[in-house]
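--- STAGE predict ---
source: upstream dedup step, 1 unique chain passed
mode: sequence only
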Amino acid sequence: LVALAAFICFAASGAHGAYTALAGMETVITVLFLLLYLLRLDARMRFVFWPLADIFNSVIAALFLLVVALFAIIIKTNKGTLAGGVLGLILLVLCIVDVVLLCKKISLDKARGRSAPAK
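--- STAGE serialize ---
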């Protein structure tokens, strides 16, 4: 929802196309990951380790959001761009939280296969 709100702020304010494109892209990718997990498609498509793909997406998004949100806040051509920049920084924090939680989930899961400890 934060990505969608940032996208709407950037689009309504007539901000630079890169701001709008990044917020829109992150909105679409987030919705796709949400659908993937809600429809349990991750269990059907086992050839991709989806938590790692989600971590990779969040790290790349956080890097891009850092740059774009800071530029939007520094330049602040109007209030919509400023609001989009602030929402971008909030989204940046949420991406970092997502990475931390997914890393904990991956490292705390039981070992699989031959490397499992004997009982």
